[in-house]
Amino acid sequence: MSTYQTVLIEKSDRVATLILNRPAKKNAMSPKLHADVTAALEELRYDDDAKVVVITGAGDAFCAGMDLKEFFHELKDQPARYDQVLRMATEWRGRTLRYFPKPTIAMVNGYCFGGAFSIVESCDIAIAADEATFGLSEINFKGFPGGSVSKSLANLFRPRDALFYALTGRRFNGKRAAEIGFVTLSVPLADLKKETMAVAAEIAGKDAAALRATKDGYRFSLEMSWEASMNYTLAKEVELAGRQQVGWKEEGIGDFVKGKFKPGLAGHETIKR
Ligand code: COA
User: Fold this and answer.
1) Can you spell out the DSSP letters for 170-236?
2) Whole-model pTM?
3) Is the CB of 65 within 6 Å of ligand 1?
4) pLDDT digits (tens, 9 = 90+) for 50-81
5) Does the C-beta of 25 come closer than 6 Å to ligand 1?
C-alpha cells in the first residue's frame, strides 16, 4: 500500500482499517484528506488482502466533518477549486463507499459532526462508542447539511429525528445513535475495537463474491421497482456463480445436501477440511 499524509492503513487477518489521520484537527476533512481517502479506497478495492474495510479516526475523534477553514473559508473565493473539492468529497462518501465491492464498517470512536454523518451512513455497518458525540452542527454556523449529508439523513434517519437534530444542532451520544438506528450498535469505548474487529473477522470469513452480491442486491434493490429488482437479482445469481471459483450451488448447497453443515446454524467457512 502507498503511504498517505492524512490517512493510515492497517491490515490484519484480511481486515483493512482506514484511519482518518488528522488527530490535531479532530480528523476534519481537508481537501488533502479527501484526495487521500479517494486514492486509498481505490487501492483497497483491488487489494486481495482486504476483504472488509473498517473506517475510523485517529485520536479521540472519528471525524469533525468538513474542514471549515481549509474548505469553506479558504476556498470561498475560488469557485472552480471549491467545486472540484466538493465533487471529490461527495463522490467518495456518496458513491465509492456506498457501492464499495467489499463490506465496510464505520467504527465511530468519538466526535462525529456534519459531513462525517455521510461516512457513517455510507458504510454497511456502523459501530459506535457509547461515549461518541454526534451532531448536525451545520445549523450552528448558519449552514445546512449540504453535499451528501441531506441525502444521508433522508436515507437512514426517521423523519422526526432527522429534522429535530438538523434544526436544533443538538448533540447525541452513541447509545442514542443506536436507539434511533443511525448506527447498528454501540458499545463502551473500551470495547469498541474488540467488538468491531470481531464483526469484521466474522464477515471476512465469508465468500467474497457472495458478500459483494449481498451488498449489491440490497443497495440497488432499494432504488428499483419490484419488477426491476426481481430481474436484477436473477441476473446477479448468474454473475455470482461466474465470480466464484466454485459456484455456491456446487459447494455451499452441495455440502448442505451431503450433510456437512447446517447453514442456518453456521457458515460454510466453519467446515473442517
Ligand atoms: N474544521 C476545521 N478545523 C477543525 C474542525 C473542522 N470541522 N473541527 C475541529 N477543528 C480544529 C480546531 O479548529 C482546532 O484547531 P487549532 O488547534 O488549530 O485551533 C483543533 O481542530 C482541535 O479542536 P478544538 O476545537 O480545540 O477541540 P475541542 O475538543 O474543544 O472541540 C469540536 C472539538 C469538534 C467540538 C470543535 O472543534 C468544533 O465545533 N468543530 C467544528 C465541528 C463542525 O461543525 N463540523 C461540521 C463541519 S460540516
Assistant:
1) -EEEHHHHHHTTSSSEEE-GGGHHHHHHHHHHHHHTS-HHHHHHHHHHHHHHHTS-HHHHHHHHHHH
2) 0.95
3) yes
4) 999 999 999 999 999 999 999 999 999 999 99
5) yes
